[in-house]
Design goal:
Its cofactor is Mg(2+). Its EC number is 2.10.1.1. It catalyses: adenylyl-molybdopterin + molybdate = Mo-molybdopterin + AMP + H(+). The chain is an alpha/beta fold. It has four domains: about 5-30 and about 180-325, MoaB/Mog-like domain (Molybdenum Cofactor Biosythetic Enzyme, Chain A, 3-Layer(aba) Sandwich); about 30-50 and about 145-175, Alpha-Beta Complex (Molybdopterin biosynthesis moea protein, domain 2); about 60-140, Molybdopterin biosynthesis moeA protein, domain 3, CATH 2.170.190; about 335-410, MoeA, C-terminal, domain IV (Beta-clip, Beta Barrel), CATH 2.40.340.10. It is about 20% helix and about 30% strand. The protein contains seven helices and 26 strands. The protein has helices spanning about 15-25, 160-170, 205-215, 230-245, 265-270, 310-325, 380-385; strands at about 30-35, 45-50, 60, 65, 80, 95-100, 110-115, 120, 125-130, 140, 150, 175, 180-185, 190, 205, 220-230, 250, 270-275, 280, 285-290, 300-305, 335-340, 350-360, 365-370, 385-390, 400-405. The strands form eight sheets. A six-stranded mixed β-sheet has the order 16-13-17-21-20-18, with helices on both faces. The chain has a five-stranded mixed barrel with strand order 22-24-23-25-26. Strands 5-6-4-7 form a four-stranded mixed β-sheet, with no helix packed on it. Helix 1 runs parallel beside helix 6, helix 3 packs parallel to helix 6 and helix 4 (about 230-245) crosses helix 5. The two termini are about 30 Å apart. Bound molecules: ligand LQZAQKY5 and molybdate ion (MOO). Molybdate ion binds next to loops.
Length: about 425
């Protein structure tokens, strides 16, 4: 989208995202962890294979290992039994071996025939039914990778399969990047914590638990500073405390333009703003800057809007890639593909709107339907959406036309 069509003073979403990614300075501190504590952490160094995989030629099936050249109508006697875990052995001439999945293929054998494809005659000799091919059902030593190969690159996120692969190398520990320490604070005198009796005009703090969950999913250590009073002095004090304890400060609310919105002026006093305002709906009053001298040597601060869905979108599209970059992880490009809209909707002037939608499969094709109310305070649709249908600023959605769809799954973790 050209900048000319953006609402005045607002950055385009993709430019703001690029700026956040470029601003991230990867943490260099690392720690060694037992594998059972390393799930979803970021690998600190390339992982190089110390063992061939598989380590031996082994059977992929329960069956019989044999020499193809010795097969005849007379069948082969079973001369040995090789369970998984057995040591190296040689197949005697003129016979075959009973073998099990994962067991070492005895030297000399060039094929494993699954037990379903043999018949044992009255004397217990093995007759192969159908054709047997050289090398069939033998998993060769090193066929997946060899000693010295790079298995994972530094920055990889340790998912369950990655942890299993590290374990399969015989390693009990792994070096990972230290968790990013994030100070989290909510502003707003109307806010009360869940569990407290409600009085008219008050608002339960829903951003706090949402961001705690999102930060935990992203592998951060959360320093929760709770609700801060809506005064410049209280916010000033909270930012100083946060700055001294954390690598990054995230606050929600008070980031718009009213006289009750103190985030921007206090950030300007204590450091400097890099940008404020992104041409998206929800999520417009997103702010990014640094405490201390306002340069990247200071502590970064992200101001998310108070409206809960605006806060969620600001996290997913802008704050999360910054956090991933700071953790030394990979920041994937936004995943999107075209999906048909099952509704029509008027455009927002000057902002891309991210509609919370569910996919309905109609005749094998996905069709996007609104997941519910689209106000930036409406959590119900956000909690049920499968993803976002991204509208172009100033362009209406017309039912039956295709639009970019961003699956929500890409924002998890
Ligand atoms: N004159 C203008 N007014 C507003 C503009 C604007 O450009 N000009 N922008 C609007 C947009 S867009 C948004 S988004 C909001 C964001 O405002 P703030 O970030 O300053 O947030 P608050 O005013 O503090 O709160 C907005 C809304 O969200 C509720 N809230 C705040 N914190 C929480 C929380 N932790 N949990 C649940 N709900 C929260 C708060 O009660 C308000 O209802 O500004 C528009 N206004
Ligand atoms: O950008 Mo705000 O999030 O529309 O409500």
């Amino acid at each position: 989208m050209s900048c000319a069509s953006l609402a005045k003073g607002l950055l385009d979403l993709l430019e703001a995202r690029e700026r956040m990614i470029a601003a991230a300075r990867p943490l260099t501190d690392e720690e060694r962890l037992p594998l059972e504590q390393a799930a979803e952490r970021v690998l600190a160094h390339d992982l190089v294979a110390g063992l061939d995989m598989p380590g031996i030629d082994n059977s992929a099936m329960d069956g019989y290992a044999l020499r193809l050249a010795e097969l005849s109508d007379a069948g082969l006697p079973v001369l040995m039994r090789v369970p998984a875990g057995a040591g190296a052995q040689r197949l005697p001439e003129g016979g075959c071996a009973r073998i099990f999945t994962g067991a070492p293929v005895p030297e000399g054998a060039d094929c494993v025939v699954p037990q379903e494809r043999v018949r044992l005659d009255a004397s217990g000799r093995v007759q192969v039914l159908g054709e047997a091919r050289p090398g069939a059902n033998i998993r060769r030593r090193g066929e997946e990778y060899r000693v010295g190969d790079t298995l994972l690159e530094a920055g990889a996120s340790l998912n369950a399969a990655a942890l299993a692969m590290i374990a399969s190398q015989g390693l009990a520990e792994v070096a990972v990047r230290r968790r990013l320490r994030v100070a989290l604070l909510s502003t707003g005198d109307e806010l009360i914590e869940p569990g407290i009796p409600y009085e008219t005009g008050q608002v339960y703090n829903s951003n706090r638990v949402m961001l705690q969950a999102l930060l935990a999913q992203a592998g951060c250590e959360v320093i929760d500073l709770g609700i801060i009073a809506d005064t410049p002095a209280a916010l000033h004090q909270a930012f100083v405390t946060a700055r001294d304890r954390a690598d990054l400060v995230i606050c929600t609310g008070g980031v718009s333009v009213g006289e009750e919105d103190h985030v921007r002026p206090v950030l300007e006093q204590l450091g400097g703003i890099r940008f404020h305002g992104v041409a998206i709906k929800p999520g417009k009053p997103f702010a990014f800057g640094y405490l201390d001298d306002g340069t990247p040597d200071g502590t970064p601060l992200i101001g998310l809007p108070g409206n809960p869905v605006a806060s969620l979108v600001g996290w997913q599209l802008l704050a999360r890639p910054f956090v991933q970059g700071c953790q030394g992880g990979e920041v994937a490009a936004l995943q999107q593909f075209a999906v048909r809209a099952g509704f029509s909707r008027r455009a927002s002037p000057g902002r891309r709107e991210l509609l919370r939608v569910v996919l309905d499969w109609q005749g094998g094709q996905p069709v996007a339907l609104l997941a519910g109310g689209q106000g930036s305070h409406m959590l119900r649709a956000a909690s049920q959406a499968h993803g976002y249908l991204m509208m172009v600023a100033d362009t209406d959605v017309e039912e039956g036309h295709d639009y970019p769809y961003l699956p929500a799954g890409q924002f998890v973790g």
